[in-house]
Amino acid sequence: MKCKICERKAESEFCKFHKISFENLVKKFEEWRKSMDISWLEYLRMLQNNPYTGVWVKEVIQYLLSKNQTGQQESEKHSNV
Fold it and tell me: Which of 43, 47, 62, 73 is the most exposed place for a label (fewest CB within 10 A)?
């Protein structure tokens, strides 16, 4: 199996680098949500635009946002039927 982001060897959706980045995003979200009252997507966009966010995390965020956008487009297609 290969990482959905970088094509490195992976045991799941992500390689070990992107997996750690994803896990850290998820862990820290609860703290951000409590202190700033923001949604998951707002959190991702905020970190994506932060110059101090690391490359691995930004790649995960880009993947998640593009995946979310695809999901929205699919649900819109089905709701128009």
Answer: 73
Three-state SS string over the chain comes to CECCCCCCECCCCCCHHHHHHHHHHHHHHHHHHHHHCCCHHHHHHHHHCCCCCCHHHHHHHHHHHHHHHHHHHHHHHHHCC
Q: Which domain holds residue 50?
A: 16-79
Residue 78, pLDDT above cutoff 90: no
Residue 3 lies in a domain: no
pTM here is: 0.81
Round the average pLDDT of the chain to a whole number and report it.
87
